[in-house]
Specification:
Radius of gyration of chain B: 18 Å
Largest interface: A-B, 38 and 48 residues
Helix content of chain A: 55-70%
Structural class of chain B: alpha+beta
Largest sheet of chain A: none
Shape of chain A: elongated
Oligomer: heterodimer
Helix content of chain B: 25-40%
Order of helices and strands of chain B: HHHHHHHEEEEEEEE
Number of strands of chain A: 0
Strand content of chain B: 15-25%
Order of helices and strands of chain A: HHHH
Strand order of the largest sheet of chain B: 1-2-3-6
Chain lengths: 76, 259
């Protein structure tokens, strides 16, 4: 997985590292990196998408498109 | 603290899915997203997929203690949630942090309908804040990772996870859409040499049905339940001298299945 992170484009890797390892929010990442909040959020999405694809191709039980969430009524 | 956000629409929640999974939302956003997911009947497949991926990523990397910034945000979210739902949030703080915890992505509990209320959301936040820290301190990485992988992969494949916790350890009951279920537990408390853990499902009639046994010798226990969970409200684990038809002791772990 570390290799997959290393393989991300620089701005996506930076976003992931700032979020995941340094604990910054995407808004903070936007400030730190000098980009709009939507861009910072978009980089996180792109990065996680790529990491998800990497997982899907490497895990024994591949991640696949999930079915709709099971909806159960709770005690209300 | 940030001003509370208003209700979010589906598209916005989906847009924030990656940040949610990575623990990169501001407290007000996290609160708003959780509120949306608690009540939303839409599948939010992308959010779900991001969460599943983040769980596996977390399990694939060496654990780190949460940053001060993350802990602060989580605690602010907790504070706002507790305030919103009254002081009932306090007792749900785990006395001993469950062994299976999520480093930056403790929102598996979103999939548990019983945590689909603010009170439970507060528990999730507390669990994230403290559980991550304790896992790191306790050096129980391998067990946690194995269990996390099992849970994450199950959820990513469309199954439902119910959180199990108590003095005997922690884990998840994972159920598929047909109700077929397994218990995934880690860091189970050791028992006397002549004891076993027995697993139970309890329905509305309050009568426990034995659905399996296990010993805590395995690093990660994965036990298929002998019956589906459909129609049952509670999953429980007791310590017994041998397999019995009715529990002889109080549960050491439980999960509310919400049936």
């Amino acid at each position: 997985m570390c290799g997959a992170i290393e393989a991300l484009p620089g701005e996506q890797r930076q976003a992931i590292e700032l979020a995941y390892f340094a604990g910054h929010t995407y808004r903070e990442i936007a400030t730190i990196t000098g980009v709009p909040q939507g861009t910072a959020n978009g980089r996180l999405r792109l990065a996680l998408n790529k990491l998800r694809d990497t997982l899907a191709s490497s895990t024994a039980a591949p991640l696949r498109a999930p079915e709709p969430l099971p909806v159960r009524e709770t005690d209300q | 603290m940030s001003d509370p956000m208003g209700p979010l629409d589906h598209a916005t929640v989906d847009e924030l899915g990656a940040a949610l999974a990575l623990g990169a939302l501001e407290p007000d956003e996290l609160h708003a997203v959780i509120q949306h997911l608690e009540s939303c009947t839409e599948p939010h497949n992308e959010v779900r997929s991001f969460l599943g991926a983040a769980e596996v990523i977390a399990a694939s990397l060496e654990p780190v203690a949460p940053s001060a910034g993350l802990r602060d945000r989580l605690m602010r979210t907790l504070a706002s949630t507790a305030q919103e739902h009254g002081d009932a949030a306090t007792p749900v703080v785990p006395a001993a942090a469950p062994a299976i915890q999520l480093r930056r992505t403790g929102l598996l509990d979103w999939f548990s309908p019983n945590l689909a209320r603010g009170l439970a959301a507060a528990a999730v936040v507390v669990a994230i804040a403290f559980g991550i820290w304790n896992v790191s301190l306790q050096g129980q990485v391998s067990q946690r990772d194995q269990a996390l992988r099992a849970v994450a992969q199950a959820i990513a494949s469309g199954q439902t996870a119910f959180r199990v916790s108590g003095t005997g350890g922690s884990g998840y009951v994972i159920a598929d859409k047909n109700g077929t279920a397994s218990f995934v537990g880690a860091n189970l408390a050791p028992l006397k040499a002549d004891q076993i853990y027995e697993l139970w499902l309890i329905g509305s009639d309050n009568k426990p049905v034995a659905v399996g046994t296990l010993t805590p010798s395995d690093a990660v226990a994965v036990v298929p339940l002998e019956r589906g969970i459909s129609g049952f409200a509670v999953f429980a684990v007791t310590a017994e001298a041998h397999r019995v038809d009715a529990p002889t002791s109080q549960p050491v772990m439980t999960a509310n299945l919400g049936s």
